[in-house]
Specification:
heterodimer, A: globular, B: alpha/beta, Rossmann fold, 22 strands, 25% strand, binds adenosine-5'-triphosphate, binds magnesium ion, cell membrane (chain A), ABC_transp_permease (chain A)
Chain lengths: 364, 510
């Protein structure tokens, strides 16, 4: 009896264990490349700082750990991670479909404008209605802004790289126009919109910290997008279109529809990030509401290997570097350009390492 | 004292995870010979050759070339030692010219290219010497498959080699192009070059080789002189049993018309007319073949039927329903299966798993999906079933299909299309890259489908394939159907003339 059981278990268990082991090994292999790239980049950064007369290792340590001083500073990192995760995860979907959406920055601004419009109007709604409505408006506006580029691509074969960049400028200039003109708060000396109605604010997690529930939304959506890409029929067709559009056509997939969907998903995520910046952080629309989150999101997706789940980690990492650089600016004389250079090296080494790995795979 | 062989491979082992691709393989090749390699799909031919030319590194074993032990880290190092290979699928950059492709990756990336004229001259000289017909300024993507093949061969010659490895070069060639390639191989051997030739076509192998090696399960199990063997024996050595070249078929008369095509015309992507008023029908329970030299509109005909190319005029009726110009999704849904000519372009997504490739058309249909989500259990089970039934050599269903040997990829495409239970099956090149054992199996499957009342249209440049399973053979020339013949080998001459476009030939002795 005992022996029979043993036999059964031996037959079933190793198979499952093998499959699990393989998944685990694959995950480690996949994570190894970006991790190595980040380490190399930080080492390069330290060397660079040293050449400029700073104590490189110290500065890098500050950059990584300097911002982890207390709960509040961790909260600030997560606050910065929110838009990066949202945008990065959304761009993973677009990139998987081979849509090169460079316009997350503009889509973020479109979302911020819509969120401001909804958040400064409709007085009298409860927070349960108004706050979500603001988020929805941001997401829809971002999707629509990206949808313009998507439509131009499927209808006229216009390169989305060009159109999304153009739309970035349009969104930025539109925002400047609005906060200096029609939406300007006349009582303020500075160009800015009126303050959002309290009920429209994104609720905070802890009342005395700026961190709001956007981080939870970002993580949940990143997980959802991962499941969407890997497990859903639509996600499957997006991936096929991205990998081999000829096979997609042969299989009867609507390439244009998939392109539009991928574009709009990434736009919606960026628009939502814009809504959170307005409704969760500044509570007003400014000309420079984003310090380039839309562009940094591209790097987040790249470092994540276009995997929305990994975008949570890489978004967190870029937010940490960003916070660290702010700490540095206050505590030492390291100019911010050097910090930007280090971020650039991170991106370059990720690209280089990934290429190297792919070449290795072929030669194997 | 026996002379040292030109190339000696000793006890090489290579594993990909749990898959043993080379299992202590040894091989000797003499200078100036044409040495053919045969073997079932996945026997390890391509992997062995990739190790000789520096694409893949062996785990164990030794390669001795011209008396020296060599160990290449890249194909460039192999080329420096004068070993070059033309791979099963081409490795040319499509939007560059021939000459640009040749100098790609040569020398320092920072050097200034100013000797293009010299490169062009050298290409022209080689092209003339071996009658290859390659223009140095032609853009790759404008060339036919046969032309690209010659470009690949000339590329290797351009770099100067003593050992040329050709991995299934004839799989995509027309009979005429094949004849040309085989005579080129003869010329190269006369110039003292050594050629390794991989093919699944026994008649070609018998025609050109000096010696033939047969591989099985990652080892060379036999090496024979061409004069001491015959096709039948080779087949037996490869598969381990007798392979039937003639398949029995039931004499059931065909049923109702499933597909009818009426005066179909369409243009190629270049805008030139490609199909000029083709009319044909296929009945339930019959296999209709379309013979022809490739480039006579067969590609466009199959693309137009499956909705991948716009139709200019004419009608296509499937099961009484007009499907002319519908999009592929609607056509797929009308019980239409298509085994495409260009597997890498249309048939598979190379980096996706076998499982994902088996649901390419049915990714949103029950039982593979419900409520918008994929049912991974069902998909995996279905794929495992196909792998078992079609004997597809793979690690498991989660392996990327690109890691499979060429023939095994084709088997999965065939398996997928038949599993969809279609009323009509459009096949453009059934056995591309499939070994003779698997070919017999795939043909039997086709005949089974026929006997189950399916209608099959088989476009092929392989006359053997057509004679083996077709009930009627149509001949296509310059975008038109010139005539119809029964699959009767005694009328081969007539078929040949039709394929060359001669309709009103004087009556042959009857
Ligand atoms: N990169 C790879 N990763 C994993 N397995 C591989 C890889 N390349 C080859 N294999 C496996 O090694 C075995 C031998 O493959 P190979 O391509 O040499 O076969 P072949 O004899 O050329 O077959 P065919 O006639 O179908 O081309 C196959 O089982 C294949 O799946
Ligand atoms: Mg092969």
């Amino acid at each position: 009896m005992e022996q029979v059981n043993q036999g059964v278990r031996e037959n079933v268990y190793p198979q499952a264990a093998q499959a699990f082991g393989r998944t685990l090994r694959q995950a480690v292999i996949n994570a190894a490349t970006p991790a190595a790239a980040v380490l190399v980049a930080l080492a390069c950064g330290a060397a660079l700082l040293w050449l400029n007369g700073f104590d490189g290792s110290d500065v890098v340590t500050v950059m990584i750990f300097g911002s982890f001083q207390d709960m509040r500073s961790v909260g600030e990192i997560l606050l910065k991670a929110t838009p990066l995760i949202l945008i990065g995860a959304g761009l993973c979907v677009a990139f998987r479909c081979s849509i090169w959406n460079i316009g997350a920055e503009g889509q973020l601004y479109a979302g911020a404008i819509a969120a401001t419009l909804v958040g400064t109007n409709f007085d009298g709604l409860s927070v349960w209605v108004h706050a979500p409505l603001v988020m929805l408006a941001g997401a829809l506006a971002g999707a629509a802004w990206a949808g313009i580029a998507g439509y131009l691509k499927v209808r006229f074969q216009a390169s989305e790289i060009v159109t999304t960049i153009m739309l970035n400028y349009i969104a930025l200039i539109l925002t400047s126009y609005l906060v200096t003109g029609p939406m300007r708060d006349a009582s303020a000396a500075y160009p800015q919109s009126a303050r959002l109605i309290r009920e429209a604010w994104t609720p905070r997690i802890v009342s005395d910290m700026r961190l709001h529930i956007g981080i939870i939304v970002a993580v949940v959506l990143a997980v959802a997008l991962y499941i969407f890409l890997q497990r859903s029929s639509r996600g499957f067709s997006l991936r096929v279109v991205g990998l081999n559009p000829y096979a997609a056509r042969y299989a009867g997939m609507q390439v244009a529809r998939n392109v539009m969907i991928a574009m709009c998903i990434s736009g919606a995520m960026a628009g939502l990030a814009g809504a959170f910046e307005v409704a969760g952080v500044t509570h007003r629309l400014y000309q420079n509401i984003s310090p380039g989150y839309g562009f940094e999101g591209i790097a987040v997706a790249l470092l994540a290997g276009n995997n929305p789940l990994a975008a949570i980690v890489s978004g967190g990492l870029f937010a940490t570097l960003r916070s660290g650089s702010e700490v540095l600016q206050i505590t030492s004389q390291v100019p911010q350009v050097l910090v930007l250079i280090i971020q650039g090296i991170v991106i370059l080494s990720v690209v280089a390492f990934t290429r190297l790995r792919d070449i290795r795979r072929i030669v194997a | 004292m026996s002379q040292k062989p030109f190339l000696r491979v000793e006890n090489i082992r290579k594993r990909f995870g749990p898959i043993v691709a080379s299992d202590g393989v040894s091989l000797e090749i003499e200078q100036g010979e044409i040495h053919s390699l045969l073997g079932e799909n996945g026997a390890g031919k391509s992997v062995l050759m990739s190790m000789i030319c520096g694409m893949v590194r062996p785990d164990e074993g030794e390669i001795v070339f011209k008396g020296q032990s060599v160990r290449f880290n890249s194909p460039r190092e192999a080329i420096r030692q004068r070993i070059g290979m033309v791979h099963q699928h081409f490795m040319l950059v499509p939007n560059l010219t021939v000459a640009e492709n040749y100098i790609l990756g040569q020398g320092s990336p920072l050097r200034v290219i100013n000797d293009m004229d010299e490169v062009h001259a050298k290409i022209r000289e080689l092209s003339d010497r071996y009658a290859l017909d390659v223009r140095p300024d032609a853009i790759i993507e404008d060339l036919s498959v046969g032309e690209q093949q010659r470009v690949e061969i000339l590329k290797v010659l351009f770099h100067g080699i003593d050992l040329l490895i050709l991995d299934e070069p004839t799989a995509v060639l027309t009979p005429q192009e094949t004849d040309r390639l085989l005579s080129l191989m003869g010329d190269l051997a006369k110039d003292g070059k050594t050629v390794v030739f991989i093919s699944h076509k026994l008649d070609e192998v018998m025609r050109v080789s000096n010696r033939i090696g047969v591989m099985r399960d990652g080892r060379v199990v036999h090496t024979v002189n061409v004069g001491e063997t015959n096709a039948r024996e080779l087949a037996r050595m490869m598969v381990g049993r007798d392979v039937r070249m003639e398949l029995p078929r039931s004499p059931e008369p065909p049923g109702h018309i499933v597909l009818s095509v009426d005066k179909l015309t369409c243009r190629a992507e270049t805008g030139l007319p490609a199909v000029r008023g083709v009319s044909l029908y296929v009945r339930a329970g019959e296999i209709v073949g379309i013979a022809g030299v490739s480039g006579n509109g067969q590609t466009e005909l199959s693309l137009a039927l499956s909705g991948l190319l716009p139709v200019d005029s004419g009608r296509v009726i499937l099961n009484g329903k007009d499907i002319t110009g519908l999009d592929p999704a609607r056509i797929n849904a009308s019980s239409f299966s298509h085994i495409p000519e260009d597997r890498h372009k249309h048939g598979i997504v190379a980096s996706m798993s076998l499982s994902e490739n088996t649901i390419l058309q049915r990714y949103d249909q029950k039982p593979f999906a419900s409520r918008g989500m994929l049912n991974r259990g069902v998909i995996g089970e279905h794929t495992r079933d196909l792998i078992k039934r079609f004997r597809i050599k793979s690690r498991d269903e989660d392996q990327p299909i690109g890691a499979l040997s060429g023939g095994n990829q084709q088997k999965l495409v065939v398996a997928r299309e038949l599993a969809r239970n279609p009323d009509f099956i459009l096949v453009n090149q059934l056995a591309r890259g499939i070994d003779i054992g698997a070919m017999e199996f795939v043909m039997e499957e086709m005949l089974k489908q026929r006997d189950n009342g399916r209608a099959i249209l088989l476009i092929s440049t392989e006359l053997e394939e057509l004679f083996a399973i077709c009930d009627r053979i149509l001949v296509m020339f310059h975008g038109e159907i010139l005539g119809e013949l029964p699959p009767d080998r005694t009328r081969l001459d007539e078929l040949g003339l039709l394929m060359a476009g001669q309709t009103n030939q004087p009556a042959l002795a009857s």
